[in-house]
Batch of 4 targets.
Target 1
Amino acid sequence: AGIRLRLQNHDRKRVRRRAYENVSGTYRGNLMSKKKPFTNQHIVPVSYLRRFATKGNSAYRIGVICADKHFIDSIDNVGYIKHYYDIEGEDSKKWEHYYGKEIEPLYGKPLDGIIAGVTLSPNRQVILDENKKKLLSKLLISQWLRVPDFLDVKIRQMPSMFRQIKKEFLAQNKGKVSKEIEHKIKVFDYPSSKRKDLILSTINAEDRLSMYVDVLSSKLWIMYYNPYYTKVPFITSDNPVVAINIDSKSINRKDNGINNNKTVIFFPLSPSVAVAIYPTPIKNLAPQIDGGKRILSETNHKLILNINTRIAEQRYKEVFVPLYIYEELFKEIR
């Protein structure tokens, strides 16, 4: 708060807009009106970004770094895409409402309790019970699947996937359906306007989400506490869940997965706390450390920097850093 930087012209002229949020602090709609509510839809929740921001007189402020510019802004004005979750029909905002009602409130008091437990507990103490693992799993999976890095790719792939499904169905039922029905199946295509709704319905179906949660919660969980967060904090982005293949070191989704025993997952929860999830075979070797706190030492700076580098590499557009780090990074232009 109170920090003012002399940035380049295009940064200084950014419009300061005030956003209005609902009681949970998770919905966002700049210049909200009755005609166009929830226009700017966050792909990473405001309530999550708040943990990396500094409270000012009228807004929470955060440092933002893009490919070709950097600036300070309110968390309400970053990390969104206009109409991103909109679908056709009368209930066009149903997925924006879903994330606001079912997912984003979990970033409030439930996550407060977990972070407080990590911060105040001694090193190596077990922090996470099964319920806390399931809560964090739900947050992590939802975040990993709600971003363009997943959704946009699946929407583009859907026509070819649908053609393959039809081909396999007809092959398995050869001679069992009439020529007329076979022709109708061949020419039928899922309308492009419906694809996003179908994918969001699939990944957010309760049974499928529960399956993902069970898979993740069965792995080895470590809660990293970073006591050097004032100088070397965990940072975040508009695509903050990092999955790394332990063999190839790839962060490509093709090389990683929730059920992949070669995948390690990192998710920063604040500048001082990050969750790490390791494959089940590693858990089998050291089950006693599952769910425990690990305080990072000075020798672990490389781990922090590695996580931060991967988060920056896979951003959609924006990397977010605490104000005190932003000021240090760009103090030469003050």
Note: The first strand starts at residue 40 and ends at 42.
Target 2
Amino acid sequence: IPATGAKWLVLVARNTRPATQEWKYTNDGGATWTTTTALSRNIANNDHSAIVYRGRAFYAGESDSIGQILCFDGLKEFEFTRLPFGPAADNTGGTAMNAVGMAMGLFYFSLNNGTTGRVYAVDPVTGAATQVGGTFVTANEIVVDVCAYAGRVWICTNNDNTKAAHIYSIRPDVDTVWTTERTTTDLGASQFRNYNSLAAKGGQLYAATSAPAGFAAIIEKRTAAGVWSTELTAGSSAAAGYYDALVEWNGKLYAQQGYSTTIFAVVIQDSVGSWSTDKDMQAAGSTSTGYFLSTPDLLFASGPPRVFVKNLSNSWSTSLSDASLTHGMLI
């Protein structure tokens, strides 16, 4: 969240859904961190659950059944808007509501009631919310990320590794249904990869996945011609592996990688498309991966119980070490 002047206010969640949500914040580039309980405990309920826009954080309220979207402005929390549920059985409240992200100037929120899922576009100024496209017929398919690419809005879904996950796209204000662009295949015994994150870079679309135990997590790439391929493979192990948190910063693509119990790292794609480990977070004390947050001159990466920061000179340093940091969501 940009603070007044040249500084940026960066917050990291210390834990998830306690009686009082604790956060730490920095407004000096990560040099010092201060604990606060001023933010709602709702923000870090689940992954991808806050959208930052013009110095405010927007996120799903505690009561998914009423479609409440809350806003925190740095001082207080208030209701911003509600999703427009209708009387139809498949358009009522839900059990899982996510703040998916922002694309083409609009917020995107998703909702799944255990039977069908929907996506809503929300105007960040007026709060007007409109359902985009039709419903998804797969139970418990959760939309987890969104990005704009090739004149379309793209979303990816997570389905607990037991059913196929998908990538869908739509032309806002033109199409009335989502186009299925990609479907994960059965790896055997009804085990599937999930999609975790999307990012567009250099005219190509990238999709990060997680995999069930014994299978390889991959990053997929789609060219402008619509050709899909495997861009990067994490390897397989007895423990499930994953890629997540794709982000473009300073002209390069970053992802967080985790598999087995010892490898938690930031991987980077250079200007010619080659991938390498950019930061070995496990060697630096991390026991899991987390999130990215970028400012014009800094890239923050959480890997609980650490937060690392990279500057424009391509130098990583440990910005925060906190044994109570178990969640690591950055806003």
Note: Residues 155 and 182 are 10 Å apart (CA to CA).
Target 3
Amino acid sequence: IYFFLARGFGLKGLIINGAIFSALTIVANVFWVKRLTAGLKVNPFWFSFSELGALVKYSVSIFLARLAGLAQDPINKIILAAYTSLPFVSFYEVGWRVSSMVRQLFGIGLIPLLPASSELQNVNMKQELERVYLFTSRMLYLFAMPFFLVVIVLAEPLVQVWLGDGYKLAARAIQFLLLGNLFSLLVTPQYIILMGIGKPHLSTLISGVTSAINLVISIGLGIIIGYYGVLIGISFSLIATSIWLIFLFCKVMGFSIVNYWKWLPGKGLALSLVISVGFRILIQNVLQPSTIVLVVLTCCSVLSYSLLGFLLGVFNREDKQIILKLRESLTFVAK
């Protein structure tokens, strides 16, 4: 991007850059598919209408779920523009981008859960699938929740350092949207597993209900209290449907909801809340927000959560094994 813009190509340069990277992505995908599936051959003359019908049914459900998710952002902006003013749309845009970026950091790591759940379902290993689901959920609670809480706590000073004074409402958007996206992220394993075992219509149902609740509450509260009403509608819709999905998933899969609650790291959740509240009090009453202060506080939060987590027994044996493997992988990449 820098090369094309620096050379003065402008918009055409961005288009060319996108085309080049798309072509490289296709070439890389074809290369790795051939390498990983050397014995796989495609017969263009083989065709089955029954298989086509199943694929279309599956694809339509996923498409509708994704469409409902993608439609929320522009709908929220339209509601804000209708019942507030354009500056509030800008504040919301900052919050939406930050919350989406933070969620994607953890969402990318859940992609392998789709083929894994499909494979376990095909070989009828229900207990192993439940174990993978519980362990994945536990990892999200252990590592994603503390990260989200730290960003929520530091949202206001972060925006002040990043954009300057006068953007407090953008920080509020980050906090509200991160709270809703946190709940949504914590039930992402349920979404992915339902798609992996061939039941994407349930994910579509949840996405549709989320959009409907968001639309009704955002418009209703937007008329009454304006900007904050829309933010409350977005967060409430994500939180409510995420809690519903937890119970619905366990009922559909035949998993025990009690096991789910037992696997959750209660000590870890309490520790992350205490650390977040402590840093909030510290930065509100003692420290002056700056880039260095935010970096130091972020590093201190990670260190304090890790050390106290080991001392207080937050991490069990499997958690420690995963942490050690992750450290070994990062060390290998660094070398």
Note: The chain has 15 helices and no strands.
Target 4
Amino acid sequence: DDAEALGTQKQQGHDLSPEALALLDMAGGNPFFVDQLVRLEQEGGLPGRLKRRIELLDARLDRLPIHLRQLLQRLAVHGGRVPIDRLTAAFEYSLEELDAQVVALEDMGLVDTSTGWVSPSHALVEDAVLAGMPAEIRREAHERYLAGIAQITPQSIGEAIRHALGTDDDQYAADLLEVGASVAWSGLDADRAVQWLQLALQKSRLLWGRGDLGMEAHTRITVELGRRLAEVLRQRGDTSTSEAVLREVQSFVSLEQPSLAAAIAMDQSRHVLTKGNIATAEEQLEQALRLSMQDEEATWLHCELIYRLGEIASRRGQYDRALSLFSE
């Protein structure tokens, strides 16, 4: 009744505190959150920060029966909408028992089933549930969902990434993020491609720092992720960030890895050439070519650099030199 009265006051234009108005707007029609708002007002005031609000929501969620709390935790870990059969695989309850629990949570305003699937009714509910879960339980829940994905496809890659990140398996998460970025980029979702490549690079840097793999192998992985991210950023027109990423991954390269240094120099020359500084770009490519010749296995890079030097010669009008380079 108090929650309904508070909503009515707002609809009728009555004066409410700025905090109450802000929180009502955030409630998104969720009666659970509106009810919590009323309780907080009755207790003498509203918290001013989201972290505190989530903590208070979590304290109330802790009073749920254990079976309902566990179901809500599974929903929060999954994220988004969940088909009911995915839940039956994670619990020992029958479909009828799960249906009854979902109805109980829906009556409390904690879940939404309007689409035929189940999801937390509000992002704040999901955040509060996740914040209140012990790390080990949350990790195990992510592992169960990840194991339930039979095959990684363009349709399932986003879900797989979410759960891989939740399992604390940084290597697998980085691998999935790299694959996901390729899928996103091919689907013209540049923002998602950048987001996933940034996360993959972050995970790869952590693994490099821990020395979980051979240093040389993991340096190569980290540099290649950085180069891919830099290229996507360049194609989006964010040249300053792209150049910054190349400078960052350059710091990972040692003198014993000339082909990696050459590849980064080649990428940097592309930025310089875009700015119209042909002489500097040519100088960088020649330096990269000398580096690539120190690695007998970098034939592909050697050829790519020669080809790009031929393109610059052609732009300069040096057609005989360009033809000679292309022939080589």
Note: The radius of gyration is 27 Å.
